[in-house]
Design a protein that fits this description.
The structure is a homodimer. Chain A is of the alpha/beta class. Chain A folds into two domains: about 5-225 and about 390-410, Aldehyde Dehydrogenase, Chain A, domain 1, CATH 3.40.605.10; about 230-370, Aldehyde Dehydrogenase, Chain A, domain 2, CATH 3.40.309.10. Chain A has 15 helices and 16 strands. The first copy, chain A, has helices at about 5-20, 25-40, 40-60, 65-70, 75-85, 130-140, 150-170, 185-190, 205-215, 240-250, 270-280, 290-295, 305-310, 325-335, 350-355, and strands spanning about 95-100, 105-115, 115-120, 140-145, 175-180, 200-205, 230, 260-265, 285-290, 300, 315-320, 340-345, 360-365, 385, 395, 400-415. The first copy, chain A, has a seven-stranded parallel beta sheet, with helices on both faces. The first copy, chain A, has a four-stranded parallel beta sheet with strand order 5-4-3-6, with helices on both faces. In chain A, β3, α6 and β4 form a beta-alpha-beta unit. At the A-B interface, α1, α10, α15, β13 and β16 of A face α1, α10, α15, β13 and β16 of B.
């Protein structure tokens, strides 16, 4: 194993036992100190970020990516505020989930415990660095971060500031560690550090997530990709349907909970489509429609099979026509990514069937898919949206990055 | 992808949606019919098993392995009884775990749902075939089985009997499928069928589990390996300690919850060790002791570093001496497999520290480690013992092979 990784792994493994014993007060106190320190050291962090920005511009980075990379005084204030908000959330560690006694008198408790060491792999978004630390630390785990190499100077400045503050609080500075090597091979090796890392979360585009799933021997939680569908049933209330679709498609196009595909019942297409097109035109949304719907739209592009499986993250919407709720369910389960899907209907039976049969983390009835979000769900914080079925599904807050153990107390019981 | 796998994957993916809609009554009715059918077709299954036994003997299979492979009328009756017992357990699907309303009026429910398609890879134990089906079916999932190739005739007979019975009940026979190819390469390909399989559970020895973790792109739950430790603190009640250690070490040596290593406080070793040795001698247990304890034992072998990390699955016990509960905790967390560990003590503070700091699925105080078992915990059935921290930890019953989803019902809400 790469020497840097080996050392980081050992330090994290040593730090995690101490983290599990921290009191809520110790954690909250440290979080507030870290928030203050990030603001106090804002100038140094912004200076480090300026190097990354300069390099990014030289390398011809796109506008949108540069904007994600940029740190300003206001953005650092917002990051600090995010950390302060975590303090108000309940401590996820030490909760008794169940308590029962067996006939032989053994008392069994199921208690929430830290995951141990959490690894996060992400792209060039320096705000993820303190965010991920805040959540993992509060959940009693040590965190190992591997950020985008374009962001390395910003990340070093942020991580050093946090680690120094932890040390000032009398805590282990290795509770946050950053992989400083920018070699891609090191990232691959990181994914195989099963001996030291209990959970690996990739945060980023589909490519990063695929590479992590394919290479990792550490248990992974997949996050992110969302090919979200809205099905407009024949009984949908058009007055409500149009604003929901408009919101889900256009309120923010580059996010995983945006709507990418519309499934329309044939009995409502004539009433819906022209009015919807008029509304979506306000944001110049390109429509890619199947044969059965294209005639009701002005200037729409014919949709291919590939369109239905595409997460555009853009002002584009594919349209598929169906003749029943069952056909809509089958179509969606075939093409979606299991993130968020919605039915617009006034028929309760169809709503129930849709809720039961759609195999997604979040299934909506008459609501915009844009609500799939830890804050919108009231979790107070979020480390990502899980699209897998193991461990956590949908928005992941503090509870979702914890594990549990059983403790069994007896008085000499043996098995017969 | 291998043509057999591709076909199995597609059939399982098609069957899973129907499985999710089965009522408790439909599932229970089918389980009882399957139990009866296995007994009725017992002769055919035993005849198929005889071929595997014959081949096994010719191949020079060891006594213990042959015994695991053998099916008799009594064993089939016991298997059928196991399926009938599942009927008495609560249906794990459709339980509302949480229900809350957001300020904007959206009603959110968190509901248990089937995993979808579960893959099980196991060794030549034909009893696992109906067991695994019973649990996955009740949990609303389709199951794909890959059993040991030495067991292929038995497995085909069992799976055909179950699939035929499902069809007779009007259910999808593809809810249980067996990979019939005995090519090892096919097993590796199976581990990468992420498109079709939602969860993969390896059941077997350390080699099988390692191969699965290293090769699988499907989320895996690791089961099994247990290097379980018992720590005898200085205040332990010797009268209770000796029977607990004797039980944990010798009641059944080939199982994952058997004790493999004893950690002894130096202040109790003189009182404990000679008496313990006398007791363990009844079962000819070999003792491998560290320098600090070997002088208190008669004819013990010196323990090497490797001994502390070894799951013997045999009449062997390693012994390590420590001078504090903290040293015991550090030693155990270093060498164990995170399965089950125990402290024998009358000091409550030490018991609490041990419970909190030992990073295992099950942490015992004054009880034999042999109780880590779904039946002993009262779960009524068990698919394995998870030693990872993601999703499920410790004994996994019906609930632990399910997932959840969120349903969100509203009335036109959009995100601002």
């Amino acid at each position: 194993m790469n020497a840097e990784l080996e050392q980081i792994g050992k330090k994290a493994a040593a730090a995690k036992y101490g983290a599990a014993l921290l009191t809520t007060e110790q954690k909250n106190n440290a979080l507030l100190k870290v928030a203050d320190a990030l603001v106090t050291h804002g100038d140094e962090i912004i200076a480090a970020n300026a190097i990354d920005m300069e390099n990014g511009k030289k390398a011809g980075m796109k506008e949108g990516i540069l904007d994600r990379l940029l740190l300003t005084k206001e953005r650092i204030d917002a990051i600090a505020e995010g950390l302060r908000q975590i303090v108000d959330l309940p401590d996820p560690i030490g909760t008794t989930l169940e308590r029962f006694e067996r006939p032989n008198g053994m008392k069994i408790e199921k208690v929430t415990v830290p995951m141990g060491v959490i690894g996060i792999i992400y792209e060039s978004r320096p705000n993820v660095t303190p965010d991920a630390f805040g959540l993992c630390f509060t959940a009693g785990s040590a965190v190992i971060l591997k950020g985008g190499s374009d962001c390395i100077h910003s990340n070093i400045a942020i991580v050093d500031c946090i680690a120094d503050t932890l040390a000032e609080c009398g805590l282990d500075r290795d509770l946050i560690q950053l992989i400083r090597s920018t070699d891609r091979e090191v990232t691959r090796e990181f994914m195989k550090m099963k001996e030291y890392v209990d959970l690996l979360i990739p945060r980023g585009g589909a490519g990063l997530i695929r590479a992590t799933v394919e290479n990792s021997t550490i248990p992974v939680i997949e996050t992110g990709t969302g090919n979200c569908h809205i099905f407009v049933d024949e009984t949908a209330d058009i007055e409500k349907a149009i604003p929901i679709i408009f919101n889900a498609k256009t309120q923010r196009v580059g996010v995983c909970n945006a709507c990418e595909s519309l499934v329309v019942h044939e009995n409502i297409r004539e009433k819906l489509l022209p009015a919807l097109q008029k509304e979506l035109a306000k944001k110049q949304v390109e429509l890619r429609a199947d044969e059965a719907s294209i005639g009701y739209l002005d200037g729409a592009v014919p949709a291919t099979e590939e369109d239905f499986g595409t997460e555009y993250l853009d002002y584009i919407l594919s349209i598929k026509t169906v003749s029943s709720v069952q056909e809509a369910i089958d179509h969606i389960n075939r093409y979606h990514t299991g993130h968020s899907d919605c039915i617009l209907t006034q028929n309760e039976e169809n709503a129930e069937l849709f809720k039961k049969c759609i195999d997604s983390a979040c299934v909506y009835v008459n609501v915009s898919t844009r609500f799939t979000d830890g804050f919108e769900f009231g979790f107070g914080a979020e480390i990502g949206i899980s699209t897998q079925k193991l461990h956590a599904r949908g928005p992941m807050g503090l509870r979702e990055i914890c594990s549990y153990k059983y403790t069994i107390v007896g008085d000499g019981q043996v098995r017969g």
